[in-house]
Amino acid sequence: MKHVLSVADLSRERVFQLFTLAADLKQRWKAGRRAMALAGRSLALIFEKQSLRTRVTFEVGIVQLGGRAVYLSGSEIGLGTRESVPDVARNLSRWVDGIAARVYSHATVEGLARHATVPVINGLSDFEHPCQALADYFTLWERGVDVSSMRLAWIGDGNNVCHSVILAGALVGASMVVACPPGYEPNPGVVSTARKLGGQLEIIHDPKDAATGADVLYTDVWVSMGQEAEREQRREAFSRYQLNDTLVGFAKPSALVMHCLPAHRGEEITDRVVDGPQSIVLEQSENRLHAQKAVIFQLLGGSLDDA
Ligand code: CP
Ligand code: NVA
After folding, report:
1. Which of the 8 DSSP states describes residue 119?
2. Cβ(39)–Cβ(307) below 8 Å
């Protein structure tokens, strides 16, 4: 595991190893252990787009492992304008031990990885959000959900988070159904990679059919960062794809509701559902920290003796 740009950079074994490590690090932290596993190490955080969870969890995550983070906004460093992506990657590699980047174009994070001599982690691109999907399946696994026999229904846009949830679902053996409006399906390359990895995946258009009998219902915003110009068209296209009480009623009574956040309440999800008893959105959010600590720990070569 050199870089984590896509969930497809991981194997099934690696994913479960990361879950075990994340659980271990979480338990140690909650027991009051103060880790020095990454003492003296640093992680550069490049953010071209807004963030709450990703920035805080990477920054706090490396600090909890004894290291430190250097936050760089895209505009501050002029990524691709003031200085080329390869030159930024080459320079940062001389000072820091890893780079986490949130970028508009997936090609940017690939460019960083190609030219960096330190590990690069995708903190969300227009194509994938691998750390989100790792934290999500870790959250289910930690709750004792049998991720290899569950049926996960994705309701809404076939977007970056959907791609990573599909690929991670294929690795852990989940059965998945995506219900999206025509024209908003997940990328066909992602769908075929997931199927090659053994993933059971259906792409349909009826949200009720997707929700029926589901163990997990997952949704995300209708308008992702960078798509603001399509806002009106998207709101119209997605109006039937709201996760509300009626749709949740088609799933198993024990079904869990997931959302990567931020939520656009009243659009893709109602207040009652996101704040309701079936929602695990804050567990997902909390576990971004622990799952990413596991990723940083492995990539930067931490030792459990110091954790
Ligand atoms: N889910 C997630 O990545 O949140 P942020 O955009 O706030 O980082
Ligand atoms: N699909 C959303 C996820 C935000 C965490 C976006 O890209 O804006």
Report:
1. -
2. no
54 lines ligand 1 (CB under 6 A): yes
**Is 265 annotated as catalytic?**
no
* pLDDT tens digit sequence for 153-170: 999 999 999 999 999 999
Crossing angle of helices 53-64 and 281-299, rounded to 10°: 50
The catalytic position among 97, 136, 215, 220 is 220
Cβ atoms of 4 and 299 within 8 Å: the answer is yes
The C-alpha torsion from 196 through 106 and 238 to 231, rounded to 10°, is: -170
Coil, strand or helix at 131: helix
- What count of residues does the chain have? 307
Over residues 247-290, the pLDDT tens digits come to 999 999 999 999 999 999 999 999 999 999 999 999 999 999 99
Nearest to 12 by CA among 152, 120, 172: 172
The bound ligand whose nearest atom lies closest to the alpha carbon of 162 is: 2
Closest listed ligand to the CA of 289 = 1
The first and second tokens of residue 293, run together, are 């600590």
Residues facing 201 on adjacent strands:
176
- Which residues, other chains included, contact 5 with Cβ-Cβ below 8 Å and sequence gap of 6+? 106, 109, 110, 113, 120, 121, 122, 125, 128, 130
Indicate if 180 belongs to the active site: no
